[in-house]
UniProtKB/TrEMBL annotation:
<dbReference type="InterPro" id="IPR036890">
    <property type="entry name" value="HATPase_C_sf"/>
</dbReference>
<keyword id="KW-0902">Two-component regulatory system</keyword>
<dbReference type="Pfam" id="PF02518">
    <property type="entry name" value="HATPase_c"/>
</dbReference>
<dbReference type="GO" id="GO:0016301">
    <property type="term" value="F:kinase activity"/>
</dbReference>
<keyword id="KW-0547">Nucleotide-binding</keyword>
<keyword id="KW-0418">Kinase</keyword>
<keyword id="KW-1003">Cell membrane</keyword>
<dbReference type="Pfam" id="PF00512">
    <property type="entry name" value="HisKA"/>
</dbReference>
<keyword id="KW-0808">Transferase</keyword>
<feature type="domain" description="Histidine kinase">
    <location>
        <begin position="362"/>
        <end position="579"/>
    </location>
</feature>
<dbReference type="InterPro" id="IPR003660">
    <property type="entry name" value="HAMP_dom"/>
</dbReference>
<dbReference type="InterPro" id="IPR005467">
    <property type="entry name" value="His_kinase_dom"/>
</dbReference>
<keyword id="KW-0812">Transmembrane</keyword>
<dbReference type="InterPro" id="IPR050351">
    <property type="entry name" value="BphY/WalK/GraS-like"/>
</dbReference>
<dbReference type="InterPro" id="IPR036097">
    <property type="entry name" value="HisK_dim/P_sf"/>
</dbReference>
<protein>
    <recommendedName>
        <fullName>histidine kinase</fullName>
        <ecNumber>2.7.13.3</ecNumber>
    </recommendedName>
</protein>
<dbReference type="Pfam" id="PF00672">
    <property type="entry name" value="HAMP"/>
</dbReference>
C-alpha cells in the first residue's frame, strides 16, 4: 500500500475504531454485566414464584404440595420453605420417597437437615427396589424417618427397622448446585438473621409486595439472594414463601468471562487487523470498478455496469459513467433495431416481389391455355366451321370461361385471406350435418366415376363444433372435391367424424388412390402447387383450393394435415367442440 493511499487510510481508521469498540465492550462487561446477570436471574425467579404460588394455592393435598415445592426447588436451583404468619417454617418437606412394601404404602421423609447427597443412591426411579433402615414416626407404621437408604441388603444397625419395597413415587434434589441439601439447611440460618428486620418489612408483605435481601454464608462466604413474598391460601391465614438462591454462579461467570476476554484479546487484535485490511480493500473497490468501466467503454462495450451507491465523488463519477454507458448502449440497440427492421422490410419486399412474380407467372400459365383454346374455337367460328361443330365449340368456350372465372374467384378469395381481411362468424353447428350435406352435393360426380362414400360417426351421432358454417362447409367441399378428383373408379371415399382429446372434434376424409410423394406432403398447401403436373388440365383443379383450406383452418386454430394410408390419401382437421345446440 502506498503511504497516502485511500486503502492505507481506511485500514488505519477502521482498525482504531474497532479497537475502541472492543475496549468499550470490555469496560461495560466489567462494570455492568454482573448487575445485569443478577437482575435477570432474580426477575426470572420472581416470575416463577408467582406461578408456584398460583399452583400451590389451587391444591390442598399435602403430598401434591410437597411435590410442587420440590419441583420448584429443582427447576430454579433455589432452597425454599413455607413460613406461617409468625415467620416460622412449616413442616412441609419437599423431598420424599414412597415405597410399596408388605401390601401397604410407606412414606419416607428425607430431611434437609443433616442429610447429604452421598446418602441417597444416584439414578433411582419409580419401579426400583430400595432397602431403607430407619424409625417409624406414626402408630400405623406408614411414615418413616430414614437413617440408611440403600439398594442392597447390608447389615441392619441395632435399633432400626428395615423396610424393603418398590418405589411408587419420589421427589429428590436434582439438577442443582453442589450439595443442594446443605444449601437447603442454610434456610434456618438465613431466616434467623432476617427475623430482626421482619417487622420493618411486614407492611410491604401485607400489601402483597415481595421483599428482597442478600445474605452471606459465614462458613463458605457464598452470597445468596433471599426473596420473601406473601402466599395466600384463601383461608384467611397469612403464609409466606421464602426462597433463597446462590449468587456464586454470577461471580464465577463474570470472572471466567474476564479471563476469556484476556485470552481472546490477541486473537481479536489479529482479526481486527485482517478484517480492517479486507474492509479497506472492499471500500476502495469502486476505483477498480470505475477503471474496468472505462476500459469497457474504450472497447465500445456499452452494457450496463453495476452502479456504485455512494454520495462521494466516486459515486457521482460512477453514476455518470453508467448513464453514459446506458445511453450509448440504448442508441446502439436502437440503431441495431432499425437496421434489423430495415433488413426485414427489405426481405419482405423481396419476398413480396418474388411472390408477385410467381403469381404473375402462375396466372399467365393458368390463363394461357384456356385463352388459346377460346381463341382457337372463336377463330373456327369466324372461319365458318360446319354447323354440327358450332354447338360443341360454343360449349367448350363456355367451359373454359367458367374455368377462368373460378380461377379468378379463388385468387380473389385467397388474396383476402393473405391480407387478413376475412373475419370469421363462429357459432355452434353440427359438423355431421355439414359433412352429409357436402357429400350429397357431389352425387353427380360420384356417379360419373362410379364412387361411393361412407360416413363413420363415433359414439355420438351429432357432434357440435364452434366454427364459421360457411367457411367450414367450404373446407369440406374442397377436401371432398379433391378426394373425388384423385380417387380410383369403383372405390369408396370414407369420411370419419369423431370426438378427439382436449375438447376437439376430428374429421378425416380418405380416398382410395395413388399416394402423394413424401417430398410433396408439406407443399400441397401452397397455392398453384400440384403433386402431379400431368393432372393440371383434365383431373386438376385451380391449384388454390388447399391453400384456401389452409387459411380457413388456421383462422379456426385447427390442427390439420395429410398422410398417406395403405390404400390412398387421408386429409384431416380438428375443430373445437361446442356443448351447446346449433345456433339458427
Amino acid at each position: 500500500m502506498r503511504r497516502h493511499s485511500v486503502v492505507l487510510k481506511l485500514f488505519m481508521v477502521t482498525s482504531i475504531l474497532i479497537l475502541i469498540v472492543f475496549s468499550l465492550v470490555l469496560f461495560a462487561e466489567g462494570l455492568y454485566f454482573e448487575r445485569f446477570y443478577r437482575a435477570s436471574k432474580i426477575n426470572a425467579l420472581e416470575r416463577n414464584m408467582d406461578h408456584f404460588a398460583n399452583e400451590f394455592n389451587q391444591t390442598a393435598n399435602e403430598r401434591k404440595r410437597s411435590g410442587l415445592l420440590g419441583a420448584f426447588m429443582n427447576d430454579n436451583d433455589a432452597s425454599t420453605s413455607i413460613l406461617n404468619n409468625r415467620f416460622e417454617r412449616t413442616s412441609l418437606n419437599p423431598y420424599f420417597l414412597e415405597l410399596q412394601a408388605n401390601g401397604k404404602t410407606i412414606e419416607i421423609r428425607i430431611s434437609t437437615d443433616g442429610t447429604t447427597m452421598d446418602e441417597i443412591p444416584q439414578g433411582i426411579g419409580i419401579g426400583d427396589m430400595l432397602v431403607i433402615d430407619g424409625i417409624f414416626m406414626d402408630q400405623e407404621d406408614t411414615i418413616m424417618n430414614p437413617v440408611v437408604i440403600q439398594q442392597k441388603n447390608k447389615d441392619l444397625e441395632k435399633g432400626l427397622i428395615r423396610v424393603k419395597g418398590k418405589i411408587t413415587d419420589l421427589m429428590l434434589p436434582e439438577r442443582r448446585s453442589y450439595n443442594p441439601l446443605y444449601q437447603d439447611a442454610l434456610i434456618h440460618d438465613a431466616l434467623r438473621d432476617w427475623m430482626p428486620h421482619a417487622e420493618q418489612d411486614q407492611s410491604r408483605l401485607r400489601n402483597g409486595l415481595p421483599v428482597q435481601v442478600e445474605w452471606s454464608d459465614k462458613w463458605s462466604g457464598v452470597q445468596y439472594a433471599v426473596i420473601i413474598r406473601p402466599l395466600s391460601e384463601g383461608n384467611g391465614g397469612n403464609h409466606y414463601l421464602f426462597v433463597m438462591t446462590s449468587l456464586q454462579p454470577v461471580g464465577e461467570a463474570v470472572g471466567i468471562l474476564k479471563q476469556y476476554f484476556v485470552y481472546m484479546a490477541p486473537i481479536i487484535f489479529v482479526l481486527v487487523i485482517v478484517l480492517s485490511l479486507i474492509y479497506s480493500r472492499i471500500v476502495s473497490r469502486p476505483l477498480v470498478k470505475l477503471s474496468r468501466t472505462a476500459t469497457r467503454l474504450a472497447k465500445l462495450d456499452f452494457t450496463v455496469q453495476p452502479e456504485i451507491h455512494s454520495k462521494d465523488e466516486f459515486g457521482d463519477l460512477s453514476r455518470n459513467m453508467v448513464a453514459l454507458s446506458r445511453n450509448l448502449d440504448a442508441a446502439l440497440k436502437e440503431l441495431s433495431g432499425v437496421n434489423v427492421k430495415l433488413l426485414e422490410d427489405m426481405e419482405e419486399k423481396r419476398r413480396s416481389e418474388q411472390l408477385r412474380k410467381e403469381l404473375i407467372a402462375n396466372i399467365s400459365h393458368e390463363l394461357k391455355t384456356p385463352l388459346a383454346i377460346v381463341k382457337g374455337f372463336a377463330e373456327g367460328l369466324q372461319d365458318g366451321v360446319a354447323d354440327d361443330k358450332k354447338e360443341r365449340y360454343l360449349a367448350l368456350i363456355v367451359n373454359e370461361t367458367d374455368r377462368m372465372n373460378a380461377l379468378i374467384m379463388d385468387m380473389l378469395e385467397l388474396s383476402k385471406f393473405e391480407a387478413k381481411a376475412i373475419q370469421l362468424q363462429p357459432r355452434s353447428l353440427c359438423i355431421t350435418d355439414v359433412v352429409q350435406k357436402a357429400a350429397d352435393s357431389f352425387s353427380q360426380q360420384l356417379e360419373s366415376k362410379h364412387l361411393q362414400y361412407r360416413i363413420n360417426i363415433g359414439e355420438v351421432e351429432e357432434l357440435f363444433v364452434k366454427a364459421d358454417p360457411r367457411r367450414i362447409e367450404q373446407v369440406v367441399m374442397n377436401l371432398l372435391s379433391n378426394a373425388i378428383r384423385h380417387a380410383v373408379e369403383n372405390s369408396v371415399i370414407t369420411i370419419t367424424v369423431q370426438r378427439a382429446s382436449n375438447g376437439k372434434v376430428a374429421t378425416v376424409i380418405e380416398n382410395v388412390g395413388a399416394p402423394i410423394a413424401e417430398e410433396d406432403l408439406s407443399r400441397i398447401w401452397d397455392h398453384f402447387y400440384r403433386a402431379e403436373r400431368s393432372r393440371d388440365r383434365k383431373t386438376g383443379g385451380t391449384g388454390l383450393g388447399l391453400a384456401i383450406v389452409k387459411h380457413i383452418l388456421e383462422l379456426h386454430e385447427s390442427e390439420y394435415g395429410v398422410v398417406n394410408t395403405n390404400q390412398g390419401v387421408a386429409f384431416s382437421f380438428t375443430l373445437n367442440e361446442s356443448r351447446g345446440k346449433p345456433n339458427e
